[in-house]
Design goal:
Strand content: 5-15%
CATH class of the largest domain: Mainly Alpha
Structural class: alpha+beta
Number of helices: 29
Number of strands: 18
CATH architecture of the largest domain: Orthogonal Bundle
Radius of gyration: 33 Å
């Protein structure tokens, strides 16, 4: 492990370097009196406000307040940490950076020979892209992906030709070199036969660089249909995939002042975006976004936008990224999430609509962190009920608990307060009194779960529990509880609080794999288990299927038919059918809609487990609430019509029909308020006289 850089060396380095030379090599300076000036490289401006003092060896911007010495400038401009900036400046002076020795730590191992091997491997791959017999095939593939020679050169893209020992024969010139190639993962040793061979064969090669530009690993993509499609170098003494980001070095190199970084899923996305002028994209290397990734990103820029495919894996990756982002959300930082249309990725999307339109898509459609967080936590909860709001509070606690103290955390607490009706002081007091429990993200915890959503645990409860606990009755065997996206327009739900089923406590988090399981690899939107949000109409249908004889006593079928809801329409059709055929069995009833979307919906609802015996009172409560909803809507429509009438006419201009409508509305309105209507005739006189 490296020791500290002695302060005496830092003082000596600053005495040797000239800050004017350091800055002028990066930003063109102009002599202005005793100092030098330029437009500030750290913010946009037209009039120079950036001043460099050779006497004080100090720079200061009067516009944005940026200031510091030569080391500070290199850190900010080159996006380097302190040791790397010192190394950079020391290299310009021919100085070797010493490290203080510690009795507890030894000097950092010397990996210079490993870095040298990686450089030679990269040079070999780039040469093969030009000279290998298969080079025309590879170049044609890259052209089909829209990449030109300049972009390939910028990212050092090459080609590992077919064959088992091409790189081995070139670089393994001794037993020591061969072992180093194994240590870096460039060669693979068979455990049984001990044979050694090239890891990368017949693949397009992407060198992976660290923050200092050193090649530390490679990623390879097949040209055909072989598996795996993408292959990364394994962990090595110089490569730790949980820390590194593909394209970060290139992004810093291409942008004088980075303000935003776009995180995508693959290195082909990074290269494709750069080809079309979007030079601020990076990608993780076969892992979920980690805390270390986010620390590195936020040290570089104040805003991170995650851009994921609109498929199942993309949405899971987005949630993992959110979990790693929360602890790093200090005030002034921003994280957003963009989901592309199903089947699209950044590579295909930017080619379809161009870079300007793609950037506009980010601007218009990327969700803020708080929007994405609460949208996922709220999904399936009925916030019109107290238990729904309490459940949201419980779910949000461990996520808000990961946030550092500051204004952003207070704003999220305010948002939760607005959703739940609880004062922020109450929320903070409750959270501080709860034992610390955070969403599990470590691999040990993840391995205990067998769903596609194993890493989304919070406060001891997974998203599986979030849905099965809040909707205990909604478990389905073999049928979906929730229509796929293509059916949302036809089947909307109106949340209904069914207290009896809640009181039964029929919660079983193991009966369903929860919300994100529908994004599994082999998801079938018709047969896969997901979670249904039960509204009043569905709840009435479920009870009606259990007790078909209830239909005979429903007198308000025509009123129910006025509810503009697809599930209520299905309920009305069931009621009419059962009134005509009161002895019809449930199975025969469902069979009448077999093969249709309504038939699937009925099968789905029929398999719901209520967790308790059907209660006729709950059925009638649901019917009443649907009727009340229709009555409320009609009353509101009448109110709007009367308001419009009175806004356009004086009272003495009303005709008899309009007076009658107003009198009827007044009568109904008083009845709704519980006011006696015995004076209705007096009202009629008043209306006619006005």
């Amino acid at each position: 492990m490296a020791g500290r850089i002695p302060q005496t060396f830092i003082d000596d380095l600053l005495a040797r370097v000239d800050i004017v030379d350091v800055i002028d090599s990066r930003v063109k300076l102009k002599k202005t009196g005793r100092n030098y000036s330029a437009c500030c490289p750290f913010h946009k401006e037209k009039t120079p406000s950036f001043s460099v003092s050779p006497d004080k060896q100090f720079y200061y911007c009067f516009g944005c307040g940026a200031s510091g010495n030569a080391i500070g400038f290199v850190m900010d401009f080159d996006h380097l940490d302190f040791p790397a900036a010192v190394d950079n400046l020391a290299g310009t002076q021919g100085m070797e950076v010493p490290r203080e020795q510690s009795s507890q730590h030894s000097r950092r191992p010397d990996y210079s020979e490993l870095y040298e091997l990686m450089i030679r491997a990269s040079e070999y791959y780039q040469e093969q892209l030009k000279t290998a017999p298969d080079a025309p095939r590879v170049i044609n593939y890259l052209k089909q992906r829209g990449l030109d020679g300049q972009t390939c050169k910028q990212f050092g893209i090459g080609f590992a030709p077919p064959g088992w020992d091409n790189l081995q024969n070139l670089l393994a010139t001794s037993d020591e070199k061969e072992q180093q190639l194994i240590n870096t993962g460039m060669l693979v040793e068979n455990e049984e036969s001990k044979n050694r061979y090239d890891r990368f064969r017949d693949r397009v090669m992407f060198p992976i660089r660290d923050s200092r530009g050193r090649i530390i690993a490679f990623g390879g993509r097949v040209l055909g249909d072989a598996k795996p499609k993408y292959l990364n170098s394994p962990e090595s003494p110089i490569f730790h995939k949980g820390r590194e980001l593909y394209g970060l070095y290139e992004a810093k190199k291409s942008n004088r002042s980075l303000e935003r970084i776009l995180v995508v899923e693959g290195y082909m996305d990074v290269v494709a975006l750069s080809q079309l002028g979007i030079n601020n994209a990076v990608a993780t290397l076969g892992t979920a976004t980690t805390l270390e990734h986010m620390q590195r990103l936020f040290k570089t820029v104040p805003e991170v936008v995650f851009c994921f495919d609109g498929d199942d894996a993309g949405r899971r990756a987005a949630w993992r990224a959110l979990e790693s982002t929360l602890p790093n959300m200090q005030d002034g930082r921003q994280a957003r999430f963009l989901f592309l249309p199903q089947g699209e990725d950044p590579d295909s999307m930017v080619r379809q609509e161009g870079s300007e339109q793609f950037l506009q898509r980010i601007q218009d459609q990327a969700l803020s962190l708080d929007t994405f967080l609460f949208r996922e936590l709220e999904d399936g909860l009925d916030l019109q009920t107290m238990d729904g709001r309490a459940r949201l509070t419980k779910l949000a606690e461990p996520y808000l608990g990961k946030l550092p103290d500051g204004i952003f955390r207070q704003l999220l607490l305010q948002k939760l307060s607005g959703l739940t009706g609880l004062e922020t002081s109450r929320l903070e007091a409750h959270m501080s009194s709860e034992p610390e429990a955070k969403p599990a993200t470590d691999h040990t915890t993840q391995d205990k779960h067998h769903s596609q959503f194993e890493s989304y645990n919070h406060a001891g409860h997974s998203y599986t529990e979030h849905y099965t606990e809040h909707y205990p009755d909604m478990h389905v065997s073999g049928y979906p509880d929730h229509y796929p996206d293509s059916h949302h327009d036809n089947y909307t739900t109106d949340s209904f609080s069914y207290s009896q089923s809640m009181k039964q406590g029929a919660y079983n988090p193991h009966k369903s794999k929860g919300f994100f399981d529908k994004r599994a690899k082999n998801f079938n939107p018709v047969l896969e288990k997901t979670q249904i949000k039960v509204g009043r109409s569905l709840y009435a249908i479920r009870h009606l299927l259990c007790n078909p004889q209830l239909a005979a006593d429903v007198k308000c079928v025509d009123t129910l038919a006025e509810d503009n809801d697809a599930d209520t329409e299905l309920l009305v059709e069931l009621l009419k059918t059962l009134k005509q055929q009161p002895k019809l069995a449930t199975s025969a009833l469902i069979a009448q809609w077999y093969g249709t979307e309504k038939g699937k919906r009925l099968q789905q609802v029929a398999t719901l487990e209520l967790g308790h015996e059907p209660d006729d009172g709950e059925f009638w409560e649901a019917i009443k609430r649907i009727s009340d909803k229709v009555a409320d809507l009609k009353h509101q429509q009448a109110s709007n019509k009367i308001s419009s009438t009175l806004a356009n006419r004086k009272p003495n201009q009303l005709d008899e029909r309009q007076r009658s409508e107003i009198e009827e509305w007044l009568k109904n309105h008083k009845a709704r308020l519980g006011i006696s209507t015995t004076g209705a005739s007096q009202d009629k006189t008043k209306v006619s006289k006005k």
